[in-house]
Amino acid sequence: MLYWLVLHFAIGLAGTWLAREYAIRRELIDQPGERRSHDVPTPRGGGIAIVIALLVAACVLGWRNPQQIILIAGFVVGLVLVAGVGMVDDHRPLSPWLRLGVQALAGAMLALAVAGTSGDLNASLITFVAVMVLTNVWNFMDGINGIATTQAALVGAGLVLVVGGIWMWVALALIAACLGFLPFNFPRARIFLGDVGSSALGFAIATLLAVTLLDGRVFAPLLLLPLSAFLVDSGLTLVRRIAKRERWWTPHAQHAYQRWASVSGSHAIVTFMYAGWTAAASVLAWWLEGRTEERVVLYCLVWFTMAAASWVWLQRLHEIGSGPRTAATEKDRK
Predict the structure, then answer these.
(1) DSSP 322
(2) Which of 69, 108, 258, 303 is exposed most, by the fewest CB atoms within 10 A?
(3) Exposed/middle/buried for 111, CB within 10 Å: 0-12, 13-18, 19+?
(4) What angle do the packed helices 267-288 and 293-321 form, to 10 degrees?
(5) Quick count: other Cβ atoms within 10 Å of Cβ 25?
(6) For 284-320, b where at least 16 C-beta lie within 10 A, e where not — what string?
């Protein structure tokens, strides 16, 4: 396990450094703006290192476990599609509908692999929905330093304890690669994940959740608890933008985490607080394991209600306390 972690950490670390050099040469730079949360031009596309680490892990595991080749192949093909369209978009902007179509194709490939492995059509449908939701959620929530990567690592850490078979090793590879990327992105961002990285993280998490559900050992609502911060923030923000008849598919800075970072003047504080919430949710999920389904559902409803109330409070806090950014935040902002 130590060798496995070191290998994928090294891929994440070295790959991110190489991606940064490439982005600078090709002038793949995110510029500051009112719809962004950073103040200085920063290269993008560093998430390709995490993608490579996951592909290496999948290929090694597929070679050693040919009985899992259908599901692994579905994961590899889907990951390549999602990361590929994200990488193209990092080089030149694509239509959001084209990206969504490619993500749907990736979700369909993984769903077919799940159906071919298990014969469970319900699990196949859930897999497709999970891919479409989480791929975009991670893309939406990649807006300040470190938040998308730390959340993926924390969710992956929770899934290591419950995911079955060889997929534990995929989760470990995900964690190690994220830790290799983080020194370049937190607390000060020298490169961003880019669409190639954020979308791939969401796809990887969706795959691990689908495999965990297939195993049948964990009551499904428990798997939603560690995702609560991202699901609530992205979901409620999207609903509000649609209700206000805004162009909800365009970039913006209206998520609670972005507004909190604007008011607090620190990305690090917000990233740590979101990490704390997710860690607490994971502990709650562990504590609830083995309890009655009624109690689990009740606690989940209470937890998500608390998350929604926190979202409302943070939005209100921004309305009350928003003002000009201080010069001290320039080095900290993504």
Answers:
(1) -
(2) 69
(3) buried
(4) 170
(5) 9
(6) bbeebeeeeeeebeebbeebbeebeebbeebbeebee
> Could you tell me how far CA 316 lies from the centroid of its own chain?
26
Per the CB < 8 A criterion, the answer to whether 315 and 259 are in contact is yes
Whether residue 187 is preceded by a cis peptide bond, meaning omega within 30 degrees of 0, is: yes
Alpha-carbon Rg for the chain, nearest whole angstrom, is: 19
Task: Indicate the SS3 state at residue 226.
Answer: helix
How far from 327 is each of 24, 37, 41, 168, CA to CA, in Å?
25, 14, 16, 44
Condensed to tens digits (0 to 9), the pLDDT of residues 254-286 reads: 999 999 998 888 999 999 999 999 999 999 999
Residue 300's alpha-carbon distances to 220, 226, 318, in angstroms, are 11, 11, 27
Q: Are 202 and 137 in contact (CB under 8 A)?
A: yes
Total length of the chain: 334
